[in-house]
């Protein structure tokens, strides 16, 4: 774990390090900053704190836990969220193998009030088929480890998960970008 008492002098320096979400939460707690949100939200809170800027907390609409009876002909509800109500619906309509994934959740949010749940089911099946057929889905920027792992194994089919983790641990420990580079393999030569 990194030391939280002394933060870098600038937000841009802070962004150069890799942080686990748990570490960001601890830093936020230690500085009396908000502790909920995505990794990017927490990083933004800390960077703004370091740079002396306003927090700019995201506005969130309060969500009612109202259960709406969903059916295939309905338009996707306004302010869609991947909640238990939607999970139940998709499990019933698609089957027990249904799981939310980033691509599908983003499609749902983008098509809120535009498309029907029937169209959503077709989209889910398409996304699942693409994955089954080996199509690589876009990895969101906040999932640096997942992107690193994908790039590592694309370049090194013969290496193991443990070797990938060693390279990742090296990479995340240095300041700067945390994208896979062939030069990261040098850590495997050290014993």
Element layout with pairings:
Layout: H1 11-15, H2 21-30, H3 39-51, H4 84-94, H5 102-110, H6 117-132, H7 144-155, H8 161-172, H9 186-189
Helix pairs in contact: 2-3, 5-6
Shape: flat
Average per-residue pLDDT, rounded, comes to 88
What structural class do you assign from the helix and strand content? mainly alpha
Enumerate the spans where pLDDT stays under 50 for 5 or more consecutive residues.
Answer: none
SSE series: HHHHHHHHH
> N- to C-terminal separation?
23 Å
Q: How many beta strands in the DSSP annotation?
A: 0
Number of distinct helices: 9
Task: Quote the beta fraction.
Answer: under 5%
Using only C-alpha atoms, the radius of gyration works out to: 21 Å
Give the biggest beta sheet. Answer: none
Number of domains: 3
Report helical residue fraction: 40-55%
């Amino acid at each position: 774990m990194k030391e939280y008492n002394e933060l870098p002098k600038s937000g841009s320096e802070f962004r150069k390090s890799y942080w686990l979400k748990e570490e960001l939460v601890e830093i936020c707690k230690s500085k009396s900053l908000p502790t909920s949100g995505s990794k990017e939200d927490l990083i933004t809170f800390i960077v703004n704190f370091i740079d002396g800027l306003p927090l700019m907390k995201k506005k969130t609409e309060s969500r009612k836990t109202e259960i709406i009876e969903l059916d295939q002909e309905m338009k996707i509800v306004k302010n869609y969220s991947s909640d238990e109500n939607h999970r139940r619906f998709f499990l019933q309509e698609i089957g027990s193998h249904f799981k939310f994934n980033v691509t599908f959740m983003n499609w749902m949010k983008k098509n809120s009030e535009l498309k029907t749940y029937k169209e959503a089911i077709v989209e889910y099946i398409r996304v699942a088929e693409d994955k089954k057929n080996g199509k690589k889905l876009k990895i969101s920027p906040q999932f640096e480890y997942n992107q690193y792992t994908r790039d590592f194994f694309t370049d090194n089919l013969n290496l193991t998960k443990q070797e990938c983790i060693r390279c990742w641990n090296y990479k995340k420990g240095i300041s700067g970008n945390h994208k896979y580079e062939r030069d990261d393999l040098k850590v495997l030569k050290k014993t």
